[in-house]
Records
---
Amino acid sequence: MIILVLNCGSSSLKYALYEWTKNVVLTQGMMELSSEGLNQHREPLQKIIHSLASYQIAAVGHRVVHGGSVFKQSVIIQGDVLDHLKKLSEIAPLHNPPNILGIESAMELLPHVPQVAIFDTAFHHTLPEISFTYPIPYEWHEKYQVRRYGFHGTSHLYVSRRAARFLGLPTNQTNLIILHIGSGVSICAVREGISVDTSMGFTPLEGAMMGNRSGDIDPAIVSFMSDRLGFDAQQITSVLNTKSGHLGVTGQYSDRRDVVNAARSGDRRAQLSLDMEVYRLKKYIGAYLAVLGRVDAIVFTAGVGENSAIIRSNTLHGLEPFGIVLDEERNDMTQSSSGETLLSTPESAIKLLMIPTHEEVVLVEDVVALLEGYYQAHTQYVYQFEK
């Protein structure tokens, strides 16, 4: 069974083709997207599908960032699913619209192939009420579904499973703090294998400092700056999403490699920005230590978490009184190509791990799980694209 997995963003389209029965990746890649036009996904996707013409594609799995309160698990895209996804675009304006464009393009190009939506928010639907409820008028939650949803769920799910296996523990007995640090950043507290708290909230803007997103700020800043700049709330939110974080503090850099290099060259604002990020990560670790009580491991993942030794080191520095002791030599030699790696010293009470994330694995597993019921109702379930 061959599954095509798509991750359609605003500036790139990532894809991977999996042979499920053999558990192998047949091909994968990424295409940059033009910033012009609303149909920018169709042409690149058409090129990808043409290149895969020799394969019989059984289904397409789409990463969708926000599932809101409607979608608590992956779904076959049919009926009014797309309409619900479009309604959610107002609370995930950077992510859901390109996700939807990718879905619509794939449905047009592969009309007889089942399409599946896999949601970043699904893993976090286990959050307890005290964690997902905001201290705002309760009617806002009841009427408008304003609550913490959390994101990067497929990554946190995959990494939590791999960490439990690495530690030799049953998943349902494993407590973890997972730091997904990439362009976007989210921290997750995992108790007995399920998410009980996470840093991102109603949208992916809340939480840790990110490449170009602010993370946590005083909400009164929005109205304060709106009055002074003559911006409406949407414009201020756009600034917080696209011109803040490292880019806002440094005035130049959103890529951590650039921030680190500039800091090493004596750029004061780059050094400030780097120090701000690790300070905030450290605070989240402390908070989740308190939430979980017992922690088996702290896990770093995603592009920065897997490859930036200095950010891992600076984040963990000073946490030795909590039983967190980093092996600096091993940390300096570790990057994503090293595979799953133990970073802590033997005397560290809490294990420190680097685990490369493979979100696509979760997407494929969910697609396959949903297909059995779909096939019972559809006899023509594969489609070979004809050139």
---
Amino acid sequence: MEINRINKSDAIIFIHKYHYSKILPRLTKEYLGVFEENTLIGVITLGWGTQPLHTINKIFNKHKLTSSDYYEIGKMCFLPRVNNSNYGSRIISILIKWVKKNTKTLFLYTLADGIMGKCGYVYQASNFKYIGKFKTSIYYDNNTGEKIHPRSSKQLCIENAEYENKKKVFWLTHNFCQYKNIDKINGLMFRYIYPLNKKASRILKEYPKYLDNKNPKDKELVFEKRLMLGKFQKIDKPYFNMNVFNHNYQKYNKEELNLFSIYTQK
């Protein structure tokens, strides 16, 4: 297997077909194809989340690092036959070698999507350091099963403000959610990081709190549904219909929408 840069359009179409979440991070720098015998079997994107500088500074608060010091794995998806095998850690190993050879970054960073039931086992098997978890919230449309990211809820927030006779709202209110048959659901995200050179390893060693963390397992996954303002109830992992885009499509730019339109017409 090998990893090479590929066209953005090819990466987007592959992700739309095989990744459970069709939304691409806005700050994507590298579109990489995983090839086996000249056949594209996977796509990985590298870049940053919504707050690149804040992310790295929060992790390493004693050092003045910048966004150029790390890459975040944005999307990683493979053909079904690859997902059902032990390819994962092998591909991560090749990815690490590619990043070392083609960039000057210190760290490879990633998040395991606990709210989707993922603890990050492939990163654990690839010797990433687990550096903690944080709570995240999404909205769930009971009418369609759509998982709505808060950053995709701009239009809903406008409607919510009108409904509540307010100037502006930044989070959907409980009353409005009841009116729209939408749930607010809390879950977890798990952070992992991999030092790419000796300098990065030295930096990591200066943060003992990251060195002996026990890797999370399925039993640590948490899902909570809002019952009323400030009150949540534990629930089983929800089912999300990742093929519904009534709200999330507003995050896409025109190029991505055109590509998705072309793909869905095939």
---
Amino acid sequence: MNKILTNVRSAAATLLTGLLVSGLASAEPILQIDIDGASYVGGTEESVVTSDTTFDLYALGTPSGNVSASDLLETVYYLSIAVIPQIGPGPVEFGSFTVDGTTYGVGDMSYGTPPLDAYDANPEAGLAPHDIFETYYLQLIVGFSGANTASTYNVQDAAGTIADHLGGTGSFFDLFQFDISGLLDGFDLHFDLYDSVVAHGPTGSNGDLDEGIFAPFSHDARTGSDCCTTKIPEPGSLALLGMGLLGMGLRRRFAHGL
């Protein structure tokens, strides 16, 4: 009996630790991207993904750590729109897309890794490639406004639900309206969100203004429903799965008289 109790405690502790880690992993970052009506795709993708040709993309900013609400409202952020799969360094015709009524093609874009005005003294500055860059990309200014507020949520848990959060408190947003019907077959867009001094790699995601801030690569976005199919399990589903496995293990032990 003592052996059974020991095993039960061990399994429960493991499950609790897993749930706590899952909770920590889903904490809201300073910057996120959501697309109205989109889905969150996990696996090797870990992005908000839309299959629509017209959609509303929201840049989300949430005060946290060293970043206050006034910091968010006074700082200029950037949305990069990158062509995928990777193209370049020579221009490649991929068609066009529109943002807020303005049409963009390869002639309007830069080749490389954003941001455009990263540390001049550090050639390594910029977003980590995360299999997206180097490619052609467009960089648009993001300006959060105190009039554009949303309740705080994590896009990993509730991707595509931005409409339900508009007008709430805790976060700010900027809206970009897209039409990608002009893209040629085989091309899609990938979206990243960052400030103007993003450091190389993920060191900027801790909220240190001296290093730069960007939406973690698990909170970016892209177009193209054909890219990926693995869905992220909801935390509640993970808990039920863990309890189910624990129950099966206990039943097996009792059946064998352990």
